[in-house]
Amino acid sequence: MVPLPEFRQVPCFPECLNWIIENQHPDGSWGIHRLHPSLVKDALSSTLACVLALKRWNVGEEHVRRGLHFIGSYFSSAMDGKLHTPIGFDIIFPGMLGYAIEMGLDLPIGQNDIDAMFYLRDLELQRVTGNSFEGRKAYLAYVAEGLGKSQDWHEVMKYQRENGSLFNSPSTTAAALSHIYDAEALEYLRSLLQKFGSSVPTSYPIDIYTLLCVVDKIERLGIARHFSYEIKNVLDKIYRCWLKNDEEINTDMGTRAMAFRLLRMNGFDISSAALTQFGDSSFFFNSIQGHLKDMKTVLELYKASQIKILPMEQILDKLGSWSSNFLREELSTNSEHGLQVLSQEVDYAFKFPFYANLERLEHKNYIENFKVENFQVLKTSYTSSGVDDKDLLELALEDFNLCQSIYRKELQYIESWVKENRLDQLEFARQKQTFCYFSAAATLFSPESFDARMSWAKNGVLTTVVDDFFDHGGSREELVNLISLIEKWDENHDKQFCSEQVKIIYSAICSTINELGAKASALQKRSVTDHLVEIWLTLVKAMMKEAEWVKTKTVPTMDEYMANGYVSFALGPIILPALYFVGPEISVDAIGDPEYHNLYKLVSLCGRLLNDMQSFEREGKEGKLSSVLLRIAHGSGSTSEEEAIMEIQSIVDSSRAELLRLVLQNEGSVVPRACKDLFWKMSRILHLFYMKNDGFTSPTEMVSAVNAVIYEPLKVGHIFSLVN
């Protein structure tokens, strides 16, 4: 539609007209062919735009006729509120209708229908008037091609970006050039044609946003390990753009929020100061996204707000507060068909915060709600990336199904191992092998992580048995006997058992340590068995101290309780041996480094306190100690139960943030990232298990999660029926 600046009776871009003539579909329409029926408004908008361009320069008479026939045939869909509506459709499409009438086109549409469209435009303009002044101005500038001569184009040009465009939108930029001349805007359009040929994307540049979406999609499908090299290259590129304050990142809230989240979670040094302006909700509401109540952008902001690693990152707290309130309100009122999948994603994000979710559960939910689309819809549809969503989904399905078959066999093996070691004969012990294996499979999910899963699951079973043994299953003589056996670590111990219970427990610990120690030593190229013994000895001594406190009715100080309690929570034997099986070699120096101990201490503190908050009433009746009860006891009557829980929750929140900071930290870190990830994975498990109650002790709380990961097949038939 843009005229040549020197001679306005000639098109500036005749090659675009040729493209229109060469790319009309057999049904007379233009746009992405064979779109989903709900996107027919997109086809109507694209088709009318092409008809106007041809008529503007009096070419393609037959193409115009066929295009008008398509519009007439489907015009009723333009007023169907149940269909997906491109951004600004109720302003842009009636505006184009008015222009067509001015041009003298013979529209195959009844006058009543045309009047109805103009009425919808008037309603939309009235609705817009009631919104934020700045947000309204930005929105009306964005959809300016629908307002024509009534628009103040000089005012619109205030939204021009450094690349010469208006909102990175070729159509808005071209609309402005049809009314006023601007050299930078013209150069922007010319650069697009040089890059793309005779057709251009609906929005450009969107390179960074597209790449971020692909990385996010691959990670959420659970297939990131197949693309680790490509993901690293993409994120390296985006980080360089971030450091250069790239305009594409800085001018779009959703892009900046997603870049912040993905870069920070992949170990890049990213400051939350980049999100400072988003902390105030007025910034959002004064934007186009705010005017449109864009849930997708706010969801990205909400996700970014959760990646907190420092206590002073109040900007993330503020962002999380208003974004969650906005999303909850929209969730309760939203009924538009096209937003149902997004609403489901928002609902899932609230139910399972990223720090309280297991990767395999997240993968399954994302796969089952996956939208196989290779396009996005703004003002009109456009291909979003060169990656085929169907190919990615098929890889994810194959991967998940393979893993699930492996999990079932491994769980059977764990159950056989329990029986072989006679652990099922210990009447005092909870039988939690399914939960222990599930926590391993849901996080260490790749087939090649077999040894890490086995270490995690077996030690999880053993620590549960030993915890019950020290709580109520063993006499003091038996507890002392078990500790003595581990201290001596002598395999010739037949006459040293004071009971059959001690023999069963020690034999299982001994054989497991020796088995895992041999495997780990081979992988690490040094002996690590003594370290595994040391981990177990430290645990049973901490459990013994706790048992003595209970027996003598000693009330320790909070510091004494916490110093012992994070060890007695029994994560040491579960996490620390598994580190030897995840790939990297871990040096003796790394094991002795404060970073290693802090990672272990922080995740154990989270677990101990989360457990205490959910089980203090039950354990208090059993005479056991708890941080909640100790807070109240040491408060001399001034601390209520609610206050004690709030104080402890605050410690959990700060410990979790510090844990994540250590996991993501690269500079000065001596523990390999693959190893550090296990501490974070365990933290996520703990937050999920103790989200509502003591999910580990409860016989039913986690059953649905176990079934989802190990037993239930994926429900994806509806996805492929839509595609095929």
UniProtKB/TrEMBL annotation:
Domain Terpene synthase metal-binding per the UniProt entry, residue ranges: 419-656
The species this protein was found in: Phoenix dactylifera (Date palm)
Keyword DNA-binding carried by entry: no
Keyword flag Magnesium: yes
Record keywords: Lyase, Magnesium, Metal-binding
Name recorded for this polypeptide: Ent-kaur-16-ene synthase, chloroplastic isoform X3
Highest taxon of source: Eukaryota
Obligatory cofactor(s): Mg(2+)
UniProt domain Terpene synthase N-terminal: residue ranges: 152-349
Annotated GO biological process: diterpenoid biosynthetic process
Family annotation (InterPro entries): Isoprenoid_synthase_dom_sf, Terpene_cyclase_plant_C1, Terpene_synth_N, Terpene_synth_N_sf, Terpene_synthase-like, Terpene_synthase_metal-bd, Terpenoid_cyclase/PrenylTrfase
One Pfam family per UniProt: Terpene_synth
GO molecular function, one term: magnesium ion binding
